[in-house]
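dude i think i finally got it to work??
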Amino acid sequence: MQSVHVVSVHLTPALIQRGGTIRDALTAISETEERHALEIAAIAKAIDPQQPTIVVGDFNSLSTFRAPRRLVELGFVDAYASVHEDADTHHTWTVPTRALPLSLRIDHVFHTPHFVTTGAEIVRREGSDHALVVAELKWAEGADARSVP
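look at this
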């Protein structure tokens, strides 16, 4: 029997004050990045990337920010990006602003190389500012719960 570890995350959101300056917003993002570094370090310490693992959730981070980058450094695969060349142009979160809506890809599905992403989509729905990220995974050829391919 093969077990799979699934980790659901919700990292701290950036708290940007309405009416603040661009500098205030950049400071808030920088402070959030520092907090995300601590949060992802705790998550990384709790998981074993040598075991089949899926990490999903609201990262409140762009794919190039610290938390997603750290998972990639540990060998995790960004499921959506692995099947979409322009992944970061597909937003998962939208908030209305005065000028234009702000839309970003901040929700992610990561997995160890025990799996291969065969498909992934973003499903928009009512009732939330976040879209669903749906990924279809299969076992990588030759993968089992004891070894990374």
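The helical segments are 22-46, 66-73, 79-83.
im so relieved honestly
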